[in-house]
Write a structure and sequence with these properties.
This protein is an alpha/beta fold. The chain is 41% helix and 22% strand. A hairpin with a 2-residue loop joins strand 1 and strand 2.
Length: 312
């Protein structure tokens, strides 16, 4: 087994096609196919299921690709630190639930590096993909939240995949809506007051579950529910339909604009457990890179400033 074969396998898994992978890799398709068959023979497993529609990972293949990504990532880190050419760009990626403060902190971190020497990536995505990206080393850091409701399920998934959760901040829930909403001027909002307005939720995909929801109280019955898959669409729905979402209240006006407000959510006996613990996940066997350390520092500074503003 060679590093080249690992790279080939990863590229095939990402493109879902031997032909497309061959184009990306600049190799002949028969050579690529032969290399993968040799690898499968050596390992004694079938990595890819081949069909007329392309290729897909088998269960063994999914596990193999996870390890292959980690090896390729660590190899790139070694080359970046000890390589003689110095031409390889150092990579740093973050996967996050839809938090504007995570993007703002990423921006501040990137400003401190030469983007000609580094390859940066930030992915606002589904909860399961945040976890998967860190498992496969596609991203070094993942940002998500835990609550009384999802903690057991999420922590079990993290432990199974050798990931650790580090707490950044604990906060009460807020109702996030646009400033022209009929409830925007309230000092607090109760759950029953929201019944006439659509609840907005980030779509979690076909494999989504209540435990992967980015919004608290995901098991409650909402008379009106609309799914969205990006933050910009969510904000448009708030304005166009007087929609709302339940969030941490940590809002970056520089990115989201000043047309939105976060009103404290008033809990009762039926809505307890709505407190959120936001943190970051990493592979427990990896040491944070200099970019990772600086990114976490930027987030902590932003969250500390937010906490001070809340006390004023």
């Amino acid at each position: 087994m060679t590093l080249q074969q690992l790279h080939y396998a990863i590229t095939i898994s990402e493109t879902g096609s031997l032909n497309k992978a061959a184009e990306v890799l600049y190799v002949a398709q028969p050579s690529l196919s032969a290399s993968m068959k040799e690898l499968e023979k050596e390992l004694g497993i079938t990595i890819f299921h081949r069909s007329g529609r392309g290729v897909s990972l088998t269960s063994d293949g999914l596990e193999f690709i996870t390890h292959a990504r980690q090896i390729e990532y660590q190899y790139a880190q070694l080359l970046g630190k000890y390589g003689k050419t110095g031409k390889r760009k150092k990579k740093f990626g973050v996967s996050t639930q839809h938090y504007s403060f995570a993007v703002k902190s990423f921006v501040e971190m990137v400003k401190q590096f030469d983007t000609e020497e580094y390859e940066f990536a930030i992915r606002e995505t589904k909860t399961k993909e945040v976890i998967d990206d860190v498992i496969t080393s596609k991203s070094e850091i993942g940002i998500l939240y835990l609550s009384d409701f999802n903690r057991q399920a999420i922590e079990k998934l993290l432990r199974t995949n050798n990931l650790t959760f580090h707490k950044l901040i604990e906060c009460d829930a807020y109702v996030y809506l646009w400033k022209g909403h009929p409830l925007a001027q309230n000092r607090s909002i109760r759950f029953e007051e929201l019944g006439d307005y659509p609840c907005l939720s980030f779509e979690q995909g076909a494999s989504g579950s209540f435990y992967f929801a980015e919004e608290i109280l995901s098991t409650r019955e909402y008379p009106r529910m609309i799914k969205a898959n990006d933050r910009a669409t969510m904000l448009n729905l708030m304005v166009g339909l007087n929609g709302y979402t339940l969030c941490s209240g940590i809002i970056c006006e520089e990115l989201n604009g000043s047309d939105y407000v976060a009103v404290p959510f008033e809990t009762d006996a039926d809505t307890r457990g709505s407190r959120m613990e936001i943190g970051y996940i990493v592979n427990q066997s990896m040491i944070l890179s200099s970019m990772g350390e600086l990114y976490i520092k930027e987030i902590e500074q932003y969250l500390n400033q937010h906490a001070k503003r809340q006390k004023v």
